[in-house]
Amino acid sequence: MFKNAFIYRIEHWEPPTLAEFEKRLSAARFVECGASQPESHGWVGPRGDGQGALAESVGGQLILKLATETKAVPGSVVKTQVEAELDKIEKDTGRRPKGKRVKELKEAVVHALLPRAFPKRGETLVWVDAKAKFVVVGAGSVKKADAVVTRLLDLLAGGCRLSSLQTQLAPSTAMSMWLTEKEGPSGFSIDRDCELKAPEGEKPAVRYARHTLDIDEVAAHIQQGKVPTRLALTWAGRVSFVLTEALTLKSIKLLDVALEGAGADAGANQGDDSFDADVALMTGEMQQLIPELLNALGGLQEEPVTGPQAAPATADEAPF
Q1: At 252, is the secondary structure helix, strand, or coil?
Q2: How far apart are CA 198 and CA 221, in angstroms?
Q3: Are 179 and 226 in contact (CB under 8 A)?
Q4: Is there a contact between 318 and 15 (Cβ–Cβ < 8 Å)?
Q5: pTM, whole model, 2 decimals?
Q6: Comparing C-alpha atoms, which of 4, 1, 7, 2 is closest to residue 293?
Q7: pLDDT exceeding 70 applies to what percent of the chain?
Q8: Residue 115 is inside which H or E element, if any?
Q9: Residues 6+ away with beta carbon under 8 Å from 69
Q10: 293-298 contacts: CB < 8 A, separation 24 or more?
């Protein structure tokens, strides 16, 4: 379900009931872009059937899905039409518009062409674990994750405040240590992909793909000052992923060991979309992986450094 994971810590939240949560989501339900609307955001049912609830609770884990639709006009088309308008005005008046007038013409051209633009739609899963005090956003970039969190904070209410994870040991420092020692932390193994960059200047990069990393060459790059920014790891032989310097997880994949028994669950869900089984499987693995990864990084800092912040909701307060 999650290929990428941006993880946020719940610093304070007084959770509403599931019914109240559904009501808030309904008020921000996704609506497709209008004819001249460049962008639209809203919540959709995570099951993907178009009819189900917008907030799905599976085993106490809350799953949401934010849909985003954008319409863009190719820059080359806009430039051609703007130039044609400028040529016409220059021919009619003897003067070629500049500055603010050109900007206004460009905006008018874009507005006129938007109804003919093809919309592009994307969806982002969100997992709220109120008991463990984590929110996981399955976005592909920091910009997208931050945009989802902004909308999520408006929705969650209850004085909700989130913070980015900050560990005692920076991920890049830990990855340097593991690569130098040629051994992952307890419970984790180093896989065959990594990226190292120089910390300053033009930032020359060295990338290894499908290559053994327990070699002196990798340690030498680190001794010369390069810093690991991405490192492929496997947790407990069950989940593989790429850890980044920003403490995000990329390319998450459940391995065969974790998937054993999932076939029986899927069989029990014949006629259904196996959504509940998929959620239970993924969140169950991630609920174990995340704390162990944080422990490998020395644990969380007591005081968050970035993001909206405050004191956690207890497990008893979680209504899901």
Answers
A1: strand
A2: 9
A3: no
A4: yes
A5: 0.83
A6: 7
A7: 89
A8: none
A9: 30, 32, 33, 39, 40, 41, 119, 120, 121, 122
A10: 293/188, 293/235, 293/243, 294/165, 294/167, 296/174, 296/185, 296/186, 296/187, 296/188, 297/167, 297/168, 297/169, 297/170, 297/171, 297/174, 297/247, 298/167, 298/168, 298/169, 298/174
- Alpha carbon 311 to its chain's center: 24
* Cα-trace Rg, the chain: 24
Q: How far is CA 254 from CA 183, 237, 261, 262, 312, in A?
A: 22, 9, 13, 11, 30
Q: Give the tens place of pLDDT for each residue, 42-82.
A: 999 999 877 789 999 999 999 999 999 999 888 999 999 99
Buried b (16+ CB within 10 A) or exposed e, 142-168: eebbebbbebbbebbeeebbbbbbbbe
**And the tokens for 136?**
């996981």
User: What is the bridge-based pairing of β-strands 188-197 and 249-254?
Assistant: unpaired
Beta strands in the chain (DSSP E): 6-12, 39-44, 56-58, 61-71, 119-129, 134-137, 161-164, 188-197, 205-208, 227-235, 239-244, 249-254
Cβ-contact 45, 52 below 8 angstroms = yes
